[in-house]
Request: fold
Amino acid sequence: MTKSSYLKSCLSPSSKLFTPIAKATASLSQRSKAFAVYAYPCIGQLRFLNTRLTHHPSYPTVLARLRGGATLLDAGCCFAQELRHLVREGIPSTQLYGFDLEPRFIEFGYDLFRDRDLFQATLLAGDVLAEPGSKGSGGLDTLVGEMDVVFASSFLHLWDWADMKAVAKRLVAFTRQIPGAVVLGRQLGSLTAGSRSMPMEGGSSYWHNVESMREFWKEVGEETETRWGVEGGLREEEEITENMGHAWAEPSMRILYWTAVRQ
Ligand SMILES: C[S@@+](CC[C@H](N)C(=O)[O-])C[C@H]1O[C@@H](n2cnc3c(N)ncnc32)[C@H](O)[C@@H]1O
Reply:
């Protein structure tokens, strides 16, 4: 069996090597370990078993670019399930990068997908908000100027406007300095944009709609001397229903899908 077919069979729901029962047991075990590190709702809801990029309106374009050799960075990759999906789609792992604050989440990903010796995407531990070149930044400085596409799933909503802008500016720094570079994402948003108190996310969080996201990227552009065209839309998804039980939930909650393209 070649390495790629082994990897495919490990990840396939019909895999004999990774039966549904084994998969369920492994998933619950990694979920418990990860939830003990930090109780993100996405971990509690086992969302690391699904991909989000595939639901994104820009996915076909991104996939075509990757097939043409583009690089992609998964920001706040957690278990790096998105990158593993792209390997299944035939994208060479040498084009794929991810980073996360929590090295244990990266490790849990290798344990869950049982591919430590096979999955060769570059996964880095580091704090996106740490000063470039500092110890906290880890290996993130190596990403500067290298990415054609940066994907941020359930990531930017961790912060309020000012810190979110600092994070977005760092993501811009990771992109190639060329028109057509893309930063895209999906996150908790709202019909009514604004700051919300989110104790679990460390204080407050900004819930965007499409208009506020355009304004946000205008500021990011001005402060990085770049220009970004932003498209997006709000969707009602299962995730919204799953989060309705939280004290911070609101009927206006939606999932915001957005794509910012460098002009
Ligand atoms: C809500 S989870 C989303 C995980 C994944 N992108 C997904 O959609 O399933 C947010 C992730 O961002 C990571 N994260 C939080 N703060 C970070 C920071 N300052 N630098 C890098 N990663 C961070 C967390 O460790 C976590 O894995």
